[in-house]
Design brief:
By secondary structure, the protein is an alpha+beta fold. The chain is built from six helices and 18 strands.
Length: 345
């Protein structure tokens, strides 16, 4: 059995002390690695030895699945049909926007080493919220570019992403109102637990460059009301608005209808909480792999609005997946992805 560890935000955490499903533990003491699945399964792991350090060296190189071995929970035809179904719901006034996702899965060439995959992603796809968490019964490797929640004392910040292209010129007209809808949703979510009048939007429609693509990003900030802890904060804001839709309750219902497999850590929250310093950084679990029962999984999706073209939304999910699936496939150093990640499960 591998020794439990986490590497998140430049911190290397070892010496696992406890694992709990109680978010209230994050209001106590200690440094915690946190994974909350999209479905709400909470895993909080407290480590005793936490220090600034680079990723350790893995025991050996990553040995991933063959590029053609990946299977998708939705093939292209079923995904495009789902996009059209969401457009029907929009026409009927049920929802304004919903995120439609699919889960890719494959069997690695040999028992998967999360650390080896994390090192591979760090070289080929560095990300601001990169994380690897390897504890009993849970292994997650994330290259997330999106901040779900950061905390500095009582100041909370979220940076939702809506809008993706190869370059800024590829961003579509529909991306801007879609981003604004999610900003309003996040403002409303944070407003439920914030001091009155403290919710603000310091930046709107920033273009961020990441390996192989660009994102449209906005920032929402607030101060927590007195007595609000992590359970209340999650109850108000989870799942993240950028990976559900608006209104959130309607979008979640549509997602549950159209997606055939659970998302797991994908579209959940992955990050760290320092309870003693009252600081934290939790990413949205996108660009995220997780390993369970000898299977490696990865999710990809797109936000659907009335202006969505089903084929273009499918291609957006391909774009988001191609680089990461390419890095996780095969044995060599190349980052070339498979021609398609759309095989039917």
């Amino acid at each position: 059995m591998r020794d439990a560890f986490a590497h998140i935000g430049g911190y290397l955490a070892t010496g696992l002390r406890e694992v709990t499903t109680d978010l209230a533990a994050l209001d106590g003491s200690g440094w915690w690695a946190v994974v909350v699945s999209y479905e709400g399964k909470v895993t909080c792991a407290r480590f005793g030895d936490v220090r600034r350090a680079p990723l350790p060296r893995p025991a050996g190189p990553w040995r991933g699945p063959a590029p053609g071995a990946w299977r998708s929970s939705l093939d292209q035809a079923r995904y495009e049909l789902g996009v059209q179904r969401i457009r029907d719901y929009i026409e009927q006034g049920e929802v304004y926007q919903a995120n439609l996702c699919r889960v890719l899965s494959a069997l690695p060439g040999r028992p998967a080493d999360p650390l080896a995959l994390a090192v591979r992603l760090a070289k080929g796809n560095p990300a601001p919220y990169a994380a690897v968490i390897d504890i009993p019964a849970l292994a997650v490797v994330s290259a997330s570019p999106e901040l779900f929640l950061s905390r500095r004392g009582d100041v909370i910040e979220s940076r939702p992403i809506k809008g993706t292209g190869v370059t800024a010129a590829d961003l579509l007209e529909k991306d801007y109102p879609e981003n604004l809808m999610i900003v309003d949703l996040v403002r409303n979510d944070l407003g439920r637990v914030a001091r009155v009048g403290s919710v603000s939007v310091p930046s709107l429609f920033e273009i961020e460059e990441h390996p192989g693509l660009v994102h449209l990003v906005s920032t929402v900030r607030a101060r927590l009301a007195e007595g609000v802890g992590w359970p209340e904060l999650f109850a108000a804001t989870f799942p993240p608005g950028s990976v559900t839709g608006a209104p959130k309750s309607s979008a979640v219902r549509v997602i549950n209808e159209l997606e055939p497999e659970p998302r797991g850590p994908y579209c959940g929250a992955v990050g760290w909480v320092d309870a003693d310093r009252r600081e934290a950084a939790l990413a949205v679990g996108i660009r995220t792999f997780w390993i369970e029962h000898d299977t490696i999984r990865f999710g990809t999706g797109a936000g659907i609005t009335w202006g969505s073209d089903p084929r273009l939304e499918w291609l957006e999910t391909e774009l988001k997946a191609a680089r990461l699936i390419g890095l996780a496939s095969g044995n060599g150093p190349e980052s070339t992805g498979p021609e398609s990640t759309g095989s039917e499960a």
